[in-house]
Structures are given as C-alpha cells and as structure tokens.
Here is the input.
Amino acid sequence: MTAGTSARVGTWTVLADRTSATFTVRNFGFRVVHGSIPVSLGSVRVSADGVVAEAALDLDKIDTGNAKRDADLRKPGLLAIDAQPVLTFAADRVDERPDGWSVEGTLGARGESCPLTVTATGPEDNGDGTWRVLAGAVFDRRAIGLRAPRFLIGREITIALDVVLVPPG
Here is the structure.
C-alpha cells in the first residue's frame, strides 16, 4: 500500500462479491482455457511490523465454461475438490517496487503448499470508500501436486485478481 493515501494501519477487508479471481492454462498443448474461482474471503492487515495478506478461493465453484471439464477437475488426481474445496494464499512479505508491489507467500491447494510471488498494482480509490488492487501470478501446477500429462494440462497456470478492499474504519 502506498504511503499516505492507503497505508492506514488496521485490517482492510476484501469485498468478495466485488472481487474476481480468474485463471488461464493451456489445454491439449495449444488451446487456452479460461476459468474463474469465487473469492470467499480475504484481508490485508497493515501494521508497524509490515503488511500481511490472506485470501481463500472456493474451488467447489470453479467454472471453466465446460461442465465435464469442471467435473474432471474435482477428481482426486487433479484438484481433489471434494477433499480440499478451498485454495488459500497467505502472504508473509510485501515489498514496494517502482511499478507496484511484490507479495511473497504460500499457495495452498489439494493439501499441498508452495511458495508464490504475486505482483500487484494500485491501490486506486474507487470513490465510494473502497480501493481497487490488480494482482497476478504464474505458478507451476506440479508444485501443488497437480499431475497430468503436459499435453492435457499445461504446466503453468496464470492467476489474475481484481480485488476491492474496504479500509479499516
């Protein structure tokens, strides 16, 4: 968060109903599949010690626009959604960069976890008491134990977040 306008100490709350999480991944080696995952909760805590962020996404409602593919993703060999229906991210380090922020943390899914670096820009004042942050990351699906032939599911998954935050009261 930038000094002055948005570095207000306290907990910033993610407005899940106005926040989106989308992803892209190659399918069959050439086609790009787009999908969305609802954000169920999130917060950014700003203190004198730094910034800590966390979020949870509801894998149970993953949507790729193809019901059969979505059902296949539920299987234990893929996302194991029935056993682990939530994807989590917990940031433990936030560094300012000239073009925004670098957020280092841990991605959790399928009972596995891996380091993930998210880049973010913003925040922008929405003019309604909320702030908007755009963020993104790329990770290798194998880091969370998601195994599949590479020609079926590409190794890199790109995540894009459009986050709306309410500052502390």
Observations:
- The chain has one helix and ten strands.
